[in-house]
Amino acid sequence: MPKYSKLERYDGLSGNVPDPVIAQMAGTTTEAVRARRIKLGKPAYSPPPPHQDALALLVPFLGVYPATMLARAANVPLQQVSKLIQSLGITPYQQPRPDIAAYDHMQGQQPDQELANIIGCSKEAVRQRRVDLEIESYRDMIRRTTRAAK
User: Fold this and answer.
1) Global pTM value
2) Total structural domains in the chain?
3) For residue 79, what are the domain limits?
4) What is the pLDDT of residues 73-91, one digit of tens each?
């Protein structure tokens, strides 16, 4: 009977699992497992870097969602997510700019701040668009109509 017959069936685990775990499963000593692993030419087990599994799950979402959101969702440091994005050469996520022109029909019908909240941009951007279109502000329109009604 071969000397390492107990360990032969665990050859696939060598290098992927710590030697003491294999020894316990095979019912032999850690030294015997180590000797078998060296004979097979496999390196010793080294644990994966922290958060490696979580980062691997994020790869399909890199560049699609903000790095801060992905880091929070996977419970990993933002620096690691940013480093992964750079190492893979993925373009970081950039929030799309809202199309303010699509809301031109609402200009002057409500306050700039309310329209900005609907569009998802700043009040100044809405105001600038309204001025460019030469549309009267909601406040001025209300003042003008209430004076005319009196």
Assistant:
1) 0.44
2) 3
3) 52-88
4) 888 899 999 999 999 999 9
